[in-house]
Specification:
- With about 250 residues, the chain is of the alpha/beta class.
- The chain is about 45% helix and about 15% strand.
- It has eleven helices and nine strands.
- Strands 1-2-3-4-6-9 form a six-stranded mixed beta sheet, sandwiched between helices. Strands 5-7-8 form a three-stranded mixed beta sheet.
- Strand 1 and strand 2 form a beta hairpin.
- Helix 9 packs antiparallel against helix 10.
- It is globular.
- GO terms for molecular function: lyase activity.
- It comes from Nocardia pulmonis.
- Keywords: Lipid metabolism, Lyase.
Length: about 250
């Protein structure tokens, strides 16, 4: 049983991947591994159409567990780096559309985790940042993804300075996608997730894999596109479009 991570099903088709390590939801290796294990279970569940990732009403995550990092030797850090990096990137490997619902703070490893989501919705009072440089470290999992999201120049500024950004700047940079009142964060994330219940799950998963392929996306797109012609949803989608127009398909997820 996981100590800090739960998966809830508040309504049909939607999973809420929640981590709670009071008081600040700091992410250590155990939390990261529990998140990755929960993400693997969600990925294998065909009944889940979309995923909300959530800390709690006060804070998404205030970052790395510095006390754990302080105890590591270089040898120990090398031994855990692959595992920790992969765990922090677990949301990007989910086949379902995924939204991070961010309250309070998303800092350090918390923001790195959220960068793997397809969408980030924040309260209008949040602080975001990658302050690891102030520890004499760098982000383990977030640099490449941040650079692709907001461009290398802006990413270098955030990583090199370790400064925090507010919701207005985060939205202008493209770091977050939607800013709402603090008590609306979770509800707004659920609203976005509901859009994909009953949707073309195979095509959505294929699109995610193309985005994740990065510079090899063009090659991956050709493969994914062709393979979708073997799915039931492709036949349903094209035939319903021809018969009844766009938006009429009733997909089955196969």
């Amino acid at each position: 049983m996981a100590e800090f991570v739960t998966v809830d099903r508040p309504e049909a088709g939607i999973a809420v991947l929640r981590f709670a390590r009071p008081p600040m939801n700091l992410i250590d290796l155990q939390v990261a591994r529990e998140l990755a294990a929960a993400a693997e279970r969600i990925a294998a569940d065909d009944e889940i159409a979309a995923v909300v990732v959530y800390g709690d009403e006060r804070v998404f995550s205030a970052g790395d567990e510095v006390a754990e990092l302080d105890r590591l030797t270089a040898e120990q850090a090398r031994a855990m780096a692959d595992d920790f990096q992969a765990a922090l990137g677990c949301l990007a490997r989910l086949p379902q559309p995924t939204v991070a619902a961010i309250s309070g703070y998303a800092l350090g490893a918390g923001l790195e985790l959220a960068l793997g989501a397809d969408r980030r919705i924040v309260g209008d009072n949040v602080k975001l940042g990658l302050p690891q440089i102030g520890l004499g470290l760098i982000p383990l999992a977030g640099i490449r993804r941040l650079s692709l999201l907001i461009g290398p120049g802006a990413a270098k500024d955030l990583v090199y300075t370790g400064r925090f950004v507010d919701p207005t700047e985060a939205a202008a940079l493209g770091l977050v996608d939607e800013v709402v009142a603090p008590d609306e964060v979770y509800a707004a994330a659920l609203r976005w997730a509901r859009r994909f219940v009953g949707g073309p799950a195979r095509a959505l998963a294929a699109a995610k894999r193309v985005f994740e392929a990065g510079p090899h996306g063009q090659d991956r797109a050709r493969t994914e596109w062709a393979e979708l012609f073997a799915t039931e949803d492709r036949g349903i989608g094209t035939r319903s479009h021809l018969a009844d127009g766009p938006g009429s398909a009733q997909f089955v997820g196969r």
